[in-house]
Amino acid sequence: MFRQATGIFLLSVFLTACGGSSDSSTPAEPSKPTDPSKPTDPSKPTVPPTDPDKPTDPELPPSTGLPANGHVMVDGIEFSNIDDAVAAIATNSQVIFGNGTFTTGMRIQADGVTLSGSGKTHFKGAQYGNKATFVVNGNGVTIENLECSGVSVSDRNGACVRQQGKDLTLDNVHFHDSENGVLTTTDTGYLTILNSTFENLGRDGRAHGIYSANDVLTIRYSKILSSKLQGHEVKSRARETIIEYSQIASLNGVDSRLIDVSNGGTLIVKGSVLEQGPNSVNNQLIGFGLEGLSSATHKVVLEDNIVLFDREKYNHLLGFPEGFSNITIRNNTFIGEPFRDKESLGVEAQNRVYASRSDYGMQEYPYLPAVF
Question: Within the chain, which residues score under 70 in pLDDT?
Fold first, then answer.
């Protein structure tokens, strides 16, 4: 909001005129002596008086560097619509979306682009090419600080983000109430998800919170919650799947597995909370290699996690193909029964097992412990 300067200074000058002859009847007023306590500073410029008839310019607020609501800024140039903004995007462009709701999707072709929201930026029901809100073909792209929801396409496999280029980072995004949160194609390098929330995602068991076919999928400091319509919270065909310091939880979702690493590889889950909810349709909390082991190295490491079984039917921690044995499960806390494969996996040797939340001293469902 602009502030109007209101003070106007009026300078009154009193002049006494002297007569032109020596016999003037009105003597001149003697000049005032200078106040010795206030010496004149010769280095300080004299401020001219303000003209009372001239309006004072308003004081402008500092620039925020953000575009207007509903606008897009590309490398400092502001656009009022998505299509013009997309045409201006080049390699390493900085794209900033103003606050407000956007309903148009976009394709990113250039490499090194950063797409940033302004704190209240929401893409709602937006899609490009019957695929996703953001179809990312460029390499090394970052998407951050924005919300996406309501994505649904004709093949029932839409997403907030479709990764088709290499090495994508999602940071502080909130993807929800769509078919997929993020869906990737093969040969796409890294997918790194940080400080983000994915919830209420999935459709027909084919769409999921996160569906990765990358080389490496990394999830840190994030929440993947309440997948729906029998989707997994995380489905990964990546060679390496790393989940650290995150919450992966069914809660009240009608989901399938929390984590499904379909073709094996390396799965590391560390310092996280895993919760199988009462409405989960699958008795396995994690599936590994159940669609065929396809990479050279296969291992599962579960370490320093809290695992909650809130599903009252019989449950299994881990499903895997016959003959696979490279499994490390240590220093975890398991809460809830029945837990049918704890003996076969040797869980009790290096972990803590409690029959219920109350036995552990934890609040009732749906409470989840914080991990970050």
Answer: 1-64
> Tens digit of pLDDT for each residue in 268-325?
999 999 999 999 999 999 999 999 998 779 999 999 999 999 998 889 999 999 999 9
Residues with Cβ within 8 Å of residue 200, at least 6 apart in sequence = 176, 177, 225, 226, 227, 228, 253
Could you give the number of structural domains in the chain? 1
Cα three-residue angle 170-173-175, rounded to 5 degrees:
110
Structural domain range at position 179: 91-360
Within a domain: residue 63?
no
Look-up of token digits 């560390």: 270
How far apart CA 208 and CA 28 sit, in angstroms, is: 96
CA atoms of 354 and 341, how far apart (whole Å): 15
- What tens digit of pLDDT does each residue of 133-144 get? 999 999 999 999
Q: Which of 246, 269, 250 is nearest to 372 (CA)?
A: 246
Burial-class residue 178 by CB neighbours within 10 Å (0-12, 13-18, 19+).
buried
CA distance 331 to 353: 10
Give the CATH number for residue 332.
2.160.20.10
**For residues 110 and 205, what is the distance between their CA atoms, to the nearest angstrom?**
33
**Token pair listed for 170:** 């999602």
Query: Are 78 and 101 in contact, with CB atoms under 8 Å apart?
Result: no
**Does any domain span residue 166?**
yes
* Calpha distance 90→125 (Å, rounded): 26
- The label of the residue with tokens 């897009």 reads 72
**Does any domain span residue 97?**
yes
The amino acid at residue 172 is: N
Cα-atom radius of gyration of the chain, to the nearest Å? Answer: 33
SS3 of 357, please?
A: helix
User: Is the entire prediction scored with pTM above 0.90?
Assistant: no
Tokens of 362: 């934890």
Non-local CB neighbours of 131 within 8 Å, separated by 6+ positions: 153, 158, 159, 162
CA angle centred on 174, ends 169 and 175, rounded to 5°: 90
Is residue 286 situated within a structural domain? yes
Q: What pLDDT digit, counting tens, does each position of 315-334 carry? A: 999 999 999 999 999 999 99
